Amino acid sequence: MTDQHIVPAPAFMAAETHRPGDVPAGTPLTSLAHKRSEAGARLLTQHDRDQDAAVSDALTQLALGEAIRRTVRNERGGMISQALRLGATWEQVTTALDTTELAAAEDLRVWAEGQRTLYHQHLAAGANILNGLDEDAYAEVMRQVAFALGRAAVEARDTHAEQAPRLRSAVAAAPMVDTVGELRALLEQLPDEMPLSLDDHHRALPDEPNQVHTVHPSLVATVSGLGSEAESKQPGLMLTQVYVPFPAEPEEQAAVATRDDLPAYGELARAAYYLERGELRAGLKDVAEVLEELAHLVGEVAADFTEHDEEGSTLRVEAKRITHASERIGKLADEVEEIAE
Hints:
Mean pLDDT: 86
Number of domains: 4
Largest sheet: 4 strands, mixed
Radius of gyration: 30 Å
């Protein structure tokens, strides 16, 4: 018996449904639509009903509408797979969904991952019926995904090749973004699907006492479809928080913001920056500062929250050891520099 001919269960039709969670798992879409339609008909035709009943029907319409939306959304990947398996093209699928090929391929990928997990769960449990996708079926679906990603990558390369000069000009014209309005103005000039990333570390001029922060946008290369046949690079937007001199002319601040050789602002990240470049004295000095801060956290902050005095005492002893290590590394920094010179 198909879903179209399933008669809604009387218990479900009579039960109060004021939130999506009130819908029993596995309830057919036709039952949801039927109950929602009945609630809507009562609202339109029975004007002399009491207010509580009318409110109940209004809430039922809302809850069932959301339950239908969630059900359809959850089935989207499976429906894409079915359409492709039956011979539909990616153009037809994306037209039916009014979306991009990249978005539809991602829906299919997520669905396939879930179905493969379901298959292996049933397999491990020794189920008589194995639902989901076995490895062969999963590989076939992923070939469809790779095909779509490849097409999207070619289209993106062509599009971005044409747009590259304009994108570079738009980003270069905004070396510092200090307000939401400035960021919005920049984003309006960039494609909606452009990847966005945030720099892991704030940047700053070393040993500059007076600085204020700004946000520096820059174009970076991002990789999509990593490790697949559809792997490709495309431009993305990175936002970096930079500390610039203050007071200073806007041109001077912009010149600092756009530098790509600024070390990180925090001691730990800055230590890595210097040490990876062989700048031992500066790097080890930052390591010593990190250790000193750790000693404070262990010996004062953490120790104050211990339940037993002996635990606090142990933490303070360890903090002193960390402090001694900090002092030794600080001294070693000067000695290493003297040897290097």
